[in-house]
Amino acid sequence: MRKFWRKLLGYFLVGMGMVILLFSCQTRQVTQSQPTTTTPAATPKATPTTAQTPATFPPVASVNSEATLPAKLPPLPYGFGALEKAIDAQTMQLHHDRHHAAYVNNLNDAIKQYPNLQNRSVESLLRDLNSVPENIRNTVRNNGGGHLNHTIFWQIMSPNGGGQPTGAIAQEINQTFGSFDGFKKQFNSAGGNRFGSGWVWLVRNPAGQLQIVSTPNQDSPIMDGNYPIMGNDVWEHAYYLRYQNRRAEYLDNWWNVVNWAEVNRRAQASGQRS
Ligand SMILES: [Fe+2]
């Protein structure tokens, strides 16, 4: 009888031992599985990157805002005949209502099939043309550039413009080009030497210096990292009705309508790149 109780106790102890062993194994499995999902070691380490934070570029269409999409034809800030000191009313009307309007319409038609581009600005497309689908890249370059260039052009002219430059830009022009006359001469020369169609610009280059550049067709200075402070349109559509082939005379007269107040605002904005 005593043998029986001893055997029973043995079975009981062995059973208890197995239960404890099984329980301890399960506990270990649970505690081992947790770290793989929750501990910092399981979190992927941040990959070191050499990419730089993109530089910010001040708005170009105006000192307050970039040119949004879909593009809109901005109204002229004065009447068609207001710039007669340099440009006749009919040229202004055709230039704004037909030529600029066509750039706007062509740009919008091109991006219609790409809704993701419509969240971007005209400036951002022109700065990174490689990000624009190849089949519309040239259309965006020509018409986006045309829209942006003309948007600036209307603002930097005024019926009350002309005369000597004022404000900080006057001093910076003297420092960079020696004198206003020297600057005008270089600017007009660059505009006169542009073969075919294009623009002549005063830009702030990436080094922060004033520079005169000329761009072909409707290329924007921002495509080269330059901020356009002021520019003159030397396409024949800008002057031919009054001046015919006398581009030099148009370039000379154009100074009578330069809006120095706006040029100063743009020059100041151009220095805010970081
Ligand atoms: Fe034009």
From TrEMBL:
GO terms for molecular function: metal ion binding; superoxide dismutase activity. It is an enzyme of class 1 (oxidoreductase). Its EC number is 1.15.1.1. The keyword Metal-binding applies. Residues 72-158 form the Manganese/iron superoxide dismutase N-terminal domain. Transmembrane segments: none annotated. Residues 165-266 form the Manganese/iron superoxide dismutase C-terminal domain. It holds the Pfam family Sod_Fe_N. PROSITE patterns: PROKAR_LIPOPROTEIN, SOD_MN. Keywords: Metal-binding, Oxidoreductase. One of its GO terms (cellular component) is cytoplasm. It comes from the Bacteria. The keyword tRNA-binding does not apply. Residues 32-53 are annotated as: Disordered. Belongs to the iron/manganese superoxide dismutase family. Homodimer. This is superoxide dismutase. It comes from Microseira wollei NIES-4236.
